[in-house]
Every structure is written in structure tokens, then in C-alpha cells.
From TrEMBL:
One of its GO terms (molecular function) is structural constituent of nuclear pore. GO terms for cellular component: nuclear pore. Its main location: nucleus. The lineage of its organism: Eukaryota, Fungi, Dikarya, Basidiomycota, Pucciniomycotina. Pfam families: Nic96. This is Nuclear pore protein.
Length: 893
């Protein structure tokens, strides 16, 4: 038994002999191994340090001096441990180089291992992220159709094809949640929208302008009492005013027409301070103001009609008389003006009369009234009429500089500080004329309603090119938009039950992308939001994000801009895609017409064309209505174009060749990858890729060798295929793959334009596989001799005893098509089984004639040839196959 003392002596001898142990190999550790072991030893030493006192007592009891042992260990010199096994002299250059070379190789291997490992995990992470992004986008596309909503019934949850006050609506009731009746109305409106979109595409194909906004507005109209439809129709009227779409009857312009993408160049330009962008904002601002004026005039008419006695309209219902009557209803109570702040002149609130004439869009009548009453007005404000006339005569409603200086002096001296006690309408007129105190754009007592406030803001808006406006006077449409977006929906619709109101607000300030994204959040308005977006995109008034920035589910992308104004972009393509997913299977042609519209933005990015093509291919593959969408080819060679081919102009494809390669061939390739045999054959055939048709057939024929053959009924059906004038795609639906292949080859042989495009190798492979399939069928039917003869006729398995033929067949094996090679195990096993069964039948026969013995010898020779051939292919066959062949060969011999 070894004691601690003996162990100590052994260790001391080991230390003494260390430097002389030349055969002791050095330890080769990598840096990472040395580091990990050092850390482990250091950690263990720290833990064991606390018990070192007890260890010393234990060692002392065994006769070991712990302190002396520790100092001896510390004196051990390990510097040469990792040096070369044999000491190298200073002059042994070759040994030094060899050692350095070995160490360099070891270091390179270690470094390569680390780099390879790092690259592997980095590439794995990158690929997983890409796969996740693709899956996430598909998931978001699906989830996007089921967004949560406060209503009990969403657009998507209701089956399609089962089977309507406007504007800001002063005091109109809240829009109710969708009911069964409203759902029917909604779907009826959707069908009317479909017809408009179809007509739009018809006009686009012919190159004609189409009054889209007006047509959609007519389609949105509902029945009497349908407040939601009335609001939608009124909002389409607002949009028509914004884009200046006028004189439209049934979608056709009667006078000046707007073209497709009319405003794209001005709206999408990067420099929003340029002349084109400024003029467009002027157009939008003036259009919105005009709509508010028209709407207010309608309100005036309704007010007068509801209270005729108080209005006392009297004689001719001119604009002047209507505004007078309106003021009577508003302020005249029992012959007394109810608002003491109003300044009365010539028996009328004179400032209010001029203001409301402006508010209703009658500037000429306002100036006429001021001129007629100039004497009365001069008693109140001596210089007002000249200011008013100069302001109205100016094209951009701007006072000349000298006149404005005088105006500001008077305003600051007299009007500004008396605003709280003077007539509020006079204060409002002065603010409009002089555009003063631009940071305080509210006039209490005048801008009391949303529409009045918005009209006042739009009247103060002034667009200038470049830096033409002083900073303290700068207030354009984009500045108004920042204010309104900051207010948010809650300011204009606190209860959240009239979303169309805030939608109109966003349209009025030119925030089209935000408007669409907001309205689409409300399920009962999703169909309307889509068609508002189509109208805006048609005229070039929607910005779209780059395809690289559309991975998330949100439709709206907001980007900060150095100018201080956010740039908003709407994923228009995804919006259309989501919408069509709700009815793509039931109304495929309508869905297709919507997807065509993705190409409206082709002038922005060619990615939109590619995205449109992707969506169209997806629709084709999902619906599988190939004949309707892609067309067909009759057995007599006549091609029948499909819906997509008739609409190539709408998806920016110049000719049939691009259509076949860009749409049909790509869809066929996808079907081929997804192992959708019938569809791949049909699509490749339509794409005129006849060689690919045979390639797909070869793969399926090869796979069918291990499956039972089709029933007799399937064969009978295929025989009548071309007699009925069908298509190759219909033939592909038959059960007997071999019969399908035979029928297709015969069809191609009748047409040199088709047959000439099939490669010789593919044709030969197809014929071999058909014969092999025939042999398999005969084998299943028990017709063994015929089956064996069919296999021999194929001549890919040498069943004669001549070695030279066997070697040649083994060499030719490498030239066989993959469809044959992949199934060669089945072919060989089936052949050996046929030989075994025929041999077994002869062996059990009670007749012992010479012909039977000769036949059995021939079969044994065939089996032997087959085994020799299989031996040459051993490494191309599975071990199970070779074992089965060997076992059957033993039974035969």
C-alpha cells in the first residue's frame, strides 16, 4: 500500500528525471483549451484555499511536510514543457524550421476551425432570419385580414355576394354598428365598386381617361336614410373637388379630362419646395375650401327651409337675400339682434354679412355688398373697403406691401386690442385680409364648428416657393396638417363613432396616406378605404414605400424628413392584396382586376410591377382556374387566350413572350417544385415549354413504378381525351400516368412546332419509363413472361450471359436520366422477382421435358447476369436491395 511519503519520493524522482526524459512527449493544447483549464484550476484553487489549513494537518499526520512540498512544487521549471521533444541547437536551422512549420500548420488548422464554426453559426442565423422574415410576412398578410375592431361584424367575417346628411353633418346621429341589413347594403356597394374598377381597367386598356372619383361616388350611393353611404358619397365629392375632377357623366369626362397619374410628378417629387409641389398644394387647399363653402351653402339653404318665418327670405332668393335670411334665423329674435357684440349698419349685422358671403364662396357678392354699403362701413372703419377690394382683387389674396404696412398699423392700433369687445366678424375679416397673428388662427364666436374652423385655416394657408415667406408668417398646408395630426381623431370625434369625419379632415389637409390607413382600421369602412386609395393612386396622390421597407404588418410608413414635415407612405399593393383575399376564390376575375391596379405605381418603382406579377401568380395558383386565367391549347393547336393574356397592357407586359416567361412559366416552376404534377404539366404546356412537360412526366412516371397501376376505368377515360378536344391539362388529371404520357407524346408528334421542341433524351427517357411501367402493370396482373419480355425490350438491364454486354450496360448506366436512376432499385428487384417466380413455377411443374430444363437454365443465366450487373452498380444500390437480390439469386440456383 502506497503512503504519502512514498508518493512524495516518487514525485521528487519525477522532478529530477524530468529534464532527462527525452521520450516524454510534449503536450499540445490550443489557446482556448489552455485558457479554459486555467480558469477551472484557478476557480478550484480559490475554493480549496479555504480548507488549506485542514489539509496541512492531514498531510502532517501522514509524514508529509506541506510547506516544504509547496516550495518544491513552486521551484519546478516548466518553461521547456512545450518546447520541441528534442532540444534544438542554435545551429539546427532545419529542425527549427520544421518545428515552426508544424506549429504554423496546427495554428492554421485551429484558426480555420474557429472561423468555420463562426461562419456556420453566422450563416445559420442569417438564413433563419430570412426564413422567419418570409414566414412573418405571410403570417402578417393573413392576420392583416382579421384586425380587431369594436364592431361585432367585420367585412371579412361576412360572406361576399350575399344578396347606403353628408360631410361633417352638423348634429347628425352617430353611425350605428353594422347589422345584417347594413352588411347587405355594404356588399351591394362592393359589387357596384367592382363594376367601376372593371370599367376603369377597360378604359385604361383603350387609353381613355376615366372620371374615377365621380364614378366611385355614384357607386357608393345607398338608399334613402343610409347615413353611412351618404357620408361616403359626400366624401367622394370632396375628393373630386380636391383633384378638380368636374363635368363627369357615367365615368366619362364631358369637357377637360384628367389623365391617369395626373398629379404624380408634383406630389411624389423629392423637392417639396419646388414650383410643381407648391402649385399642387394650392390646388388641394383651394379645392378643400371650395367644398367647405359649397357644403356651408347647403346648410344655409336647409336652415332657411326649416324656419321660413324667422328667415323672412321674401322676394328673389339671391345669395344676398339667403345670407340675410340666414342671419335673421341665427341672430334676430323678436325683432332684436341677440348678440350685442354685432355692429349693425343699415339694419343688418354688416361684418357678419360680408363674412358669411365669403364663407359661402361668394367673394364677388361680398365685394358688391361692401361697395354698396361703403358709406355705412366708413362710419365704422374708414379704410376697410379699399383694403377689402385690394385683397379680393389680388390673385393670391395678398395686399400690396405699402397698403399692407398701413393695414398693419391700423390693426395694431385699433383692432387688435379691441378684439375681445368688438364685433368678432370684423376681427375675423381683418385677420383674413391682413393674415395677421398667424400663430393665433382662432376667432371665438366665429369659428365655432369644425367646418368653420377648417375653412378659416385653409383661408389663411399660403403656399410660397422656396423661402419666400418670413418665418413668422409661414403657414402652409403642411403646417396645417401637423396641427391636425397632433390634435388626432379624439379632438374631432371624441366618441369614436364617426370615423368618416376625421377621414375628411385628413383629406382636407392633404394627408392622404394617413387618411386611408385610418379609415381602413374601421371594419365597416374597409371597402370604402380601398376604393378611396385606388382613386388617389390613379391620380398619383399616394406615396408608396420601398419594397425593402414593407416587411411589417402596418400599412402606413412614416419617415422623418429634414424639412421638418414627415413623409408618409402607404403600402398600396398590400392593401389591395388583403382586400382581394376575401373574395379571390368566389370572384376571381374581380380580384384580378384589383391586383392589376398595383401597377399604377409602376412609374415610381419597377418593384411594383414585379409585386403585381407575384400577386397574379399567387392568385392563379390559389384558385387553380388555369383555363380561365391563363388560357388553353386545343388538340388542333389553336391557342385560347386567358383573362390575363387579354390584359397584358395593365400589368406592363409588352408581348406574349414576356407573359409566358414572366407569369406562366414561373407559376409552372412553382407547381413543379411543390410536386403538383397535374398543374405543372398544364402550366408548362401553356407556357410552350414542351420539353419541361415531358421532364415532369418522366419524374412522375418514375415515381409511379413503385405504385399500383391505375384502374381500367382510368385507361378508358384517357382514350377519349383528345377525341373530345380537351387539353393536355385535362389529360394530366387521368389516373394512368403512362397513358397520359403516351397521349401527350402522340399529341406533340402531330405538331412539328411542339414535337420539335422536345429533346431527344427526354423523349427516349419517357418511352423507356412507359415500357417499364407497362412491365410493372403486366407483373401486377400476373403476366410474368410478357412482363419479362417488356423489360428485356427496354434493354437497360443485360439479361444475357455475355460479360462484354454487362460491362457496357454498367458503363451506360451513368448516362441514364435521373428519373430512371432514382428508381433503379425497384426496377432490378421487380425483374429478379419476375425471374424467380417464373423459375419457381417451372420448378414445381410436374412435367420434366427438356424444354422446361432449358427454360430454367436460361432463367438462371438471366439471374446471374443481373447479379453481375448489380455487382458493378453495388455502390449505387441500397444494401437492402443488394441483399434481396442475393437471396432471390440463391433460391433460383
Amino acid at each position: 500500500m502506497a503512503t504519502l511519503a512514498s508518493l512524495l519520493q516518487d514525485s521528487q524522482r519525477l522532478q529530477t528525471s524530468h529534464t532527462h526524459a527525452q521520450d516524454l512527449p510534449s503536450i499540445q493544447l490550443g489557446l482556448d483549451q489552455i485558457e479554459s483549464q486555467s480558469r477551472r484550476i484557478a476557480g478550484r484553487s480559490a475554493k480549496e484555499g479555504r480548507g488549506s489549513g485542514n489539509a496541512a494537518y492531514l498531510l502532517a499526520s501522514g509524514g508529509v511536510n506541506a510547506d516544504h512540498l509547496s516550495s518544491t512544487i513552486n521551484a519546478v521549471n516548466l518553461t521547456g514543457t512545450f518546447e520541441p521533444l528534442l532540444p534544438l541547437s542554435d545551429t539546427d536551422v532545419e529542425g527549427y524550421l520544421r518545428h515552426t512549420h508544424e506549429q504554423t500548420i496546427i495554428s492554421s488548422i485551429e484558426e480555420g476551425r474557429r472561423a468555420t464554426t463562426s461562419d456556420f453559426y453566422r450563416n445559420l442565423d442569417s438564413q433563419m432570419r430570412k426564413d422567419w422574415e418570409r414566414q412573418k410576412e405571410k403570417l402578417f398578410e393573413e392576420l392583416g385580414r382579421h384586425q380587431a375592431s369594436g364592431s361585432s361584424q367585420t367585412l371579412e367575417s361576412t360572406p361576399r355576394r350575399k344578396g347606403a346628411g353628408g360631410g361633417f353633418d352638423r348634429g347628425s346621429p352617430a353611425v350605428p354598428a353594422p347589422s345584417a341589413g347594413s352588411s347587405l347594403q355594404m356588399h351591394s356597394r362592393m359589387m357596384r365598386y367592382d363594376r367601376v374598377v372593371r370599367r376603369l381597367n377597360d378604359f385604361r386598356k383603350e387609353g381613355y381617361a376615366f372620371g374615377l372619383v365621380s364614378a366611385l361616388g355614384e357607386a357608393s350611393a345607398g338608399t334613402a336614410g343610409d347615413s353611412k353611404s351618404a357620408q361616403t358619397t359626400e366624401t367622394f365629392r370632396l375628393l373630386a373637388r380636391l383633384v378638380k375632377e368636374t363635368d363627369v357623366l357615367n365615368g366619362e369626362f364631358q369637357r377637360t379630362a384628367l389623365s391617369e397619374r395626373e398629379y404624380a410628378q408634383a406630389y411624389l417629387v423629392e423637392n417639396q419646395e419646388g414650383q410643381a409641389a407648391v402649385e399642387l398644394r394650392k390646388t388641394l387647399g383651394n379645392g378643400g375650401k371650395s367644398w367647405l363653402e359649397e357644403q356651408f351653402m347647403s346648410y344655409v339653404d336647409r336652415t332657411i327651409a326649416s324656419r321660413p318665418a324667422e328667415a323672412a327670405l321674401g322676394g328673389i332668393p339671391s345669395v344676398q337675400n339667403k345670407i340675410r335670411a340666414f342671419l335673421n334665423v341665427k341672430y334676430l329674435k323678436n325683432g332684436t339682434w341677440s348678440n350685442p357684440s354685432l355692429e349693425i349698419a343699415n339694419s343688418t349685422p354688416i361684418w357678419a354679412r360680408m363674412y358669411y358671403l365669403l364663407r359661402s364662396g361668394h367673394a364677388h357678392e361680398a365685394l358688391e355688398f361692401a361697395t354698396e354699403n361703403e358709406a355705412h362701413i366708413q362710419k365704422l372703419e374708414k379704410s376697410f373697403v379699399p383694403y377689402f377690394k385690394a385683397w379680393l382683387d389680388s390673385e393670391d389674396r395678398r395686399l400690396p406691401k405699402l397698403l399692407r404696412d398701413r393695414f398693419l398699423s391700423e390693426y395694431n392700433q385699433r383692432i387688435r386690442y379691441l378684439a375681445s369687445s368688438s364685433d368678432p366678424y370684423k376681427h375675423a375679416l381683418y385677420k383674413l385680409i391682413g393674415r395677421v397673428e398667424i400663430n393665433r388662427r382662432n376667432v371665438p364666436g366665429v369659428t365655432q364648428t369644425t367646418e368653420d374652423w377648417l375653412w378659416f385655416q385653409l383661408s389663411l394657408v399660403r403656399e410660397t416657393e422656396g423661402a419666400g415667406e418670413a418665418p413668422h408668417e409661414k403657414f402652409g398646408l403642411r403646417d396645417l396638417a401637423k396641427v391636425l395630426v397632433k390634435f388626432g381623431e379624439g379632438h374631432f370625434d371624441p366618441k369614436g363613432n364617426k370615423p368618416m369625419l376625421y377621414f375628411q379632415v385628413l383629406l382636407l389637409c392633404g394627408q392622404f396616406e394617413r387618411a386611408i390607413a385610418f379609415l381602413y382600421q374601421h371594419s365597416q369602412y374597409q371597402a370604402d378605404a380601398v376604393h378611396f386609395a385606388i382613386a388617389l393612386a390613379y391620380y398619383g396622390l399616394l406615396r408608396i414605400p420601398a419594397r425593402s421597407k414593407t416587411a411589417e404588418v402596418d400599412l402606413l410608413v412614416v419617415e422623418a424628413d429634414p424639412s421638418g414635415y414627415d413623409l408618409t407612405r402607404l403600402n398600396f399593393a398590400r392593401l389591395l392584396h388583403r382586400y382581394t383575399r376575401t373574395f379571390v376564390l368566389t370572384d376571381t376575375e374581380e380580384a384580378l382586376n384589383y391586383l392589376y391596379l398595383v401597377c399604377l405605381n409602376a412609374d415610381v418603382s419597377q418593384d411594383q410591377v414585379q409585386l403585381c406579377h407575384d400577386y397574379v401568380r399567387e392568385l392563379v395558383m390559389d384558385t387553380r382556374k388555369y383555363s380561365m386565367l391563363l388560357g388553353d391549347i386545343r388538340n388542333d393547336g389553336i391557342k385560347i387566350p386567358g383573362q390575363i393574356e387579354r390584359d397584358l397592357k395593365l400589368i406592363h407586359l409588352k408581348d406574349e413572350k414576356l407573359y409566358l416567361s414572366g407569369i406562366v412559366k414561373t407559376a409552372a416552376h412553382r407547381a413543379d417544385q411543390e410536386k403538383r404534377f397535374n398543374e405543372a404539366i398544364l402550366l408548362y404546356n401553356i407556357a410552350e415549354e414542351y420539353d419541361s412537360v415531358i421532364s415532369v412526366l418522366n419524374v412522375e412516371l418514375g415515381n409511379s413504378l413503385s405504385r399500383p397501376s391505375a384502374t381500367a376505368s382510368g385507361n378508358a377515360e384517357s382514350g377519349s381525351y383528345f377525341a373530345n378536344g380537351g387539353t393536355v391539362g385535362i389529360a394530366a388529371g387521368q389516373e394512368d400516368v403512362a397513358q397520359v404520357a403516351r397521349t401527350i407524346l402522340e399529341h406533340y408528334d402531330r405538331s412539328s412546332s411542339m414535337g420539335g421542341r422536345v429533346s431527344r433524351k427526354n423523349r427516349e427517357t419517357c418511352e423507356i419509363l412507359m415500357r417499364l411501367k407497362e412491365a410493372m402493370t403486366l407483373y401486377e396482373q400476373g403476366r410474368l413472361d410478357h412482363a419479362l419480355q417488356a423489360i428485356e425490350d427496354v434493354n437497360i438491364i443485360p439479361l444475357n450471359s455475355e460479360l462484354v454486354h454487362i460491362i457496357r450496360a454498367a458503363e451506360d448506366f451513368k448516362d441514364l436520366d435521373e428519373a430512371i436512376v432514382r428508381n433503379f432499385d425497384v426496377i432490378l428487384l421487380t425483374t429478379m422477382n419476375i425471374i424467380y417466380k417464373i423459375h419457381g413455377g417451372l420448378k414445381e411443374s410436374p412435367f420434366g421435358d427438356a424444354s422446361r430444363q432449358q427454360k430454367m437454365n436460361e432463367l438462371r443465366q438471366k439471374a446471374r447476369s443481373l447479379m453481375m450487373f448489380a455487382g458493378m452498380l453495388r455502390y449505387r444500390l441500397t444494401s437492402e436491395t443488394y441483399s434481396s437480390l442475393t437471396r432471390l439469386d440463391v433460391f433460383i440456383h
